[in-house]
Amino acid sequence: MSQQYGYYHSVETFGTVDGRGIRYVLFLAGCSLGCKFCHNPDTWVRGEKTISVEAVMADIRKYRRYYEASGGGITISGGEALLQPDFVAEVFRQCREKKVHTTLDTAGNCPEESLDRVLPYTDAVLFSIKAVDPVKHRWLTGSDNSKILANLKKVSEVLPVALRYVVIPGITNGRDDIDALAAMIKSLPGQVAVELLPYHTFGRKKWAQLGKAYLLEGVPDATPQDIAKVQALLKEHDIDVLYETKAG
């Protein structure tokens, strides 16, 4: 079989916030959403930088003792990883053969067939939900979320899911937003862990470097109090959450 390549943005060999343990994190290039709060808009365009499956596996072999000792493995993120399902599936397939734990980090805005290609070789999923209300979701991301929610349901039927939600003050942290989030979580067929990510403005420089106007100008960073408020609202629905320190 000919060597497969993926378009990528960057690699982190000792990631600690994208799945359990210490992880090799591959950030693929290209995204199907245009989130107003994205702190990595430089990952939206596919570009020309590529990496081979062989190179990824060689990297993993180099650091494997650290991943194994910590219960870690590989996470493929983005951009949107599922825009390159064949590449992701082949990396994960080879990792499965080598008993390396695999985690998919996705926003789920992809055809169902892309999930079908990757899920058989996936051990866990980090699934990012931007908003449950369809109107707010379209305003925040430029895209409808019906396909995303359907894909989340499909994933939760078969795999452990960590649901990631970015707390944006005045935008995604109102009672109506959190009530809708809780109802959606309770409708899922499987158990999910909930991680809250505080919104920050660190990515504003990248927007400027790309010649783009920052679209949430004036929205403050989420504070620990903002996170605690959302935790409390979810607790009213008997949903416990994790406070994830990596900001969204």
Automatic annotation (TrEMBL):
Its main location: cytoplasm. One of its GO terms (cellular component) is cytoplasm. It is found in: Cytoplasm. It is an enzyme of class 1 (oxidoreductase). It holds the Pfam family Radical_SAM. Belongs to the organic radical-activating enzymes family. It comes from the Bacteria. SUPFAM superfamilies: Radical SAM enzymes. Activation of pyruvate formate-lyase under anaerobic conditions by generation of an organic free radical, using S-adenosylmethionine and reduced flavodoxin as cosubstrates to produce 5'-deoxy-adenosine. It catalyses: glycyl-[formate C-acetyltransferase] + reduced [flavodoxin] + S-adenosyl-L-methionine = glycin-2-yl radical-[formate C-acetyltransferase] + semiquinone [flavodoxin] + 5'-deoxyadenosine + L-methionine + H(+). This is Pyruvate formate-lyase-activating enzyme. Binds 1 [4Fe-4S] cluster. The cluster is coordinated with 3 cysteines and an exchangeable S-adenosyl-L-methionine. InterPro entries: Aldolase_TIM (IPR013785), Organic_radical-activating (IPR034457), Organic_radical_activase (IPR012839), PFL1_activating (IPR012838), Radical_activat_CS (IPR001989), rSAM (IPR007197), rSAM_sf (IPR058240). Its EC number is 1.97.1.4. Its cofactor is [4Fe-4S] cluster. It comes from Sporomusa malonica. Residues 17-240 form the Radical SAM core domain. GO terms for molecular function: 4 iron, 4 sulfur cluster binding; [formate-C-acetyltransferase]-activating enzyme activity; lyase activity; metal ion binding. Keywords: 4Fe-4S, Cytoplasm, Iron, Iron-sulfur, Lyase, Metal-binding, Oxidoreductase, Pyruvate, S-adenosyl-L-methionine. Coiled coil: none annotated. PROSITE patterns: RADICAL_ACTIVATING (PS01087), RADICAL_SAM (PS51918).
